[in-house]
Design a protein that fits this description.
By secondary structure, the protein is mostly helical. Helix content is 63%, strand content 0%.
C-alpha cells in the first residue's frame, strides 16, 4: 500500500503541473495594464481556500466600481471583468497562485517586477 507521504508528493507534483498549465494558458490573455489592475486589486488578498480563487472577478469588479480601478489603469473595466468571469477553475487557481507568488517576491525585495513575472516558474 502506498504511504501517505508518497501520495502527498505525487498529488503535489500533479497540482504544480496543473498550475503550470494554467499559467501557460493565461500568458497571453491579459494586457500589462490589466495585470497591474489585478495585482493592485489583490494586493494583500488572502486566498483562504481553493474556492476563493473564484472570487477574483468579483474583487476586480468591486475595485472598479468602488475605487476607480478602470480609470487608474486606463482600461475597460467591463472587458477585464468579462475575461475574468470566463476563466476556468484551473485558470482562476493558477492566477491566484501567480498573484500570491508575485506579491511574495515583491515583499522579499524584488521591487522592480513587471506583471509578466506572474508567469515565471518560481517557488
Amino acid at each position: 500500500m502506498e504511504a501517505q507521504a508518497e501520495r502527498t508528493q505525487r498529488d503535489l507534483a500533479r497540482y504544480q503541473a496543473l498550475l503550470a498549465q494554467g499559467r501557460a494558458r493565461l500568458r497571453d490573455r491579459f494586457m500589462d495594464k490589466e495585470l497591474w489592475a489585478i495585482l493592485d486589486t489583490l494586493n494583500g488578498y488572502w486566498f483562504a481556500d481553493p474556492s476563493s480563487a473564484g472570487s477574483i472577478a468579483a474583487e476586480v469588479e468591486d475595485a472598479i466600481a468602488l475605487n476607480g480601478l478602470a480609470q487608474k489603469w486606463e482600461l475597460s473595466g467591463q472587458a477585464l471583468v468579462q475575461t475574468l468571469h470566463g476563466l476556468t477553475g484551473l485558470e482562476s487557481m493558477a492566477l491566484a497562485d501567480a498573484v500570491e507568488r508575485w506579491w511574495a517576491r515583491v515583499g522579499a525585495g524584488e521591487t522592480t517586477l513587471e506583471p509578466v513575472a506572474l508567469w515565471d516558474e518560481v517557488s
